[in-house]
Amino acid sequence: MPFLLMICMMNTNLKFLALAALINGTCFSMILPLLAPLTRQLHLSEFQGGVIVSAGAICMAIASIWVAKRKSQLSPKQLVNYGFWGMTFTWAIFTLMLYFGIHAILPTLFIFILLVLSRAATGIFMALPQIGLQSYVMTHASEDAERSKQMAMFGAMNSFGMIVGPFATSVLLFGGLLFPMWLAVGLLGVVSIALSILFSQIQMDGSQLEQEEKRTIEHEPMPQQSLIWLVLGFVTYVSIVTLNMTAGFYIQDKFYLSSQQSAIYFSQCMLVVGMCLVLTQLLIVKVLQLKLNSLVIIGLVTMCFGLLLSLYAPTIFVFQASYVFYGISVACLLPAFTTGAAQAVSQQAQVKMASFCTAIQALGLIVGPLLSTFLYGFNTHFPFYLLLFLMLFIGLYFCYFLSVGRKIF
């Protein structure tokens, strides 16, 4: 079920917390469509731009592991509050460093180091709300089925934020390159205040959390069919990041545009993706009611078609048309990943699977920027060929599982 329809089924507190999870992912990903024009304005290489994004993802993965092992020492309230307040201040510092770089207030190398450090700090604090929200579900969901649904919801909203972020940036570019970034700082600040007020009215039962964790952290082996969904999630996140980052450079170099022109054209691409994503999700639920296998097939086929169209686009308008297919693809693949992963394990293993899904997202955010910008330095087409190869690989992987009679859907 699409994310925005699922959230309507929750009570008021859970609706706001799910919205907070969406904002968490949205603000973290808003830099992606700005990376290409900002990298060129700051006189950095494509690979250096990728390092800036990956620094946050690496620290997010490390922080997730470190905090998860010490979760009993921090309440859900503390994790969520520390996370959002930390993101607010580190995001403000990151945006301020971009301002200094654009106006040449500090040397380029110094700006690059400060951007990496501030982005890394943002990644550390981004990990805290996800773990805090999982802990909140553990203490407030009374039944396994309800707990599983809410766990999947929070993970899905955070993943959906990876799409909403670039889309929101494209809409807000009328105020300049840094306007979306400053707006994200303000949004995080408002959410931080609202969460502080909300959690002050909610009593956290620590003994119940400890009891539930003992029950769900059993060393239950993960079913083999869950691996294919994790691979699908990894490929999807790598695709999202690559198409948001490398395409910005690609537009500028292929069609000989200035940084400002490429930002405008790419913002239009994000508008196309956003509209297609929403329309596709509404069609899936209201009209088509597709099952998991259909979602995967449609998602993979449309992604491959979009990649081929991007590679051989003779004009910028044909290139922008390829984002229609990217929007359809992501609208199918992200729900398939989160739903398939949740259905592949028992109710008792939902927390463990949620942790794996978070790790997969972080891994995609690490590998995607580094690998795509590294390949772009050799040939502008290589990142698109990489995605095409990954899509064909995951398609063959699914076909293999089906051919040997294993149940994955």
From TrEMBL:
Q: Where in this chain does the record put each Major facilitator superfamily (MFS) profile domain?
A: 13-407
Q: Name one GO molecular function term.
A: transmembrane transporter activity
Q: Which keywords does the record carry?
A: Membrane, Transmembrane, Transmembrane helix
Gene3D superfamilies, alphabetized: MFS general substrate transporter like domains
Residue spans crossing the bilayer: 16-35, 47-67, 79-102, 108-131, 152-175, 181-199, 227-251, 263-285, 292-317, 323-342, 354-378, 384-403
**The organism's place on the tree of life at top rank:** Bacteria
Q: Which PANTHER family match?
A: MEMBRANE PROTEIN, TRANSPORT PROTEIN
In Swiss-Prot or TrEMBL terms, this protein is called: Major facilitator superfamily (MFS) profile domain-containing protein
Q: Which organism is it from?
A: Acinetobacter venetianus (strain ATCC 31012 / DSM 23050 / BCRC 14357 / CCUG 45561 / CIP 110063 / KCTC 2702 / LMG 19082 / RAG-1)
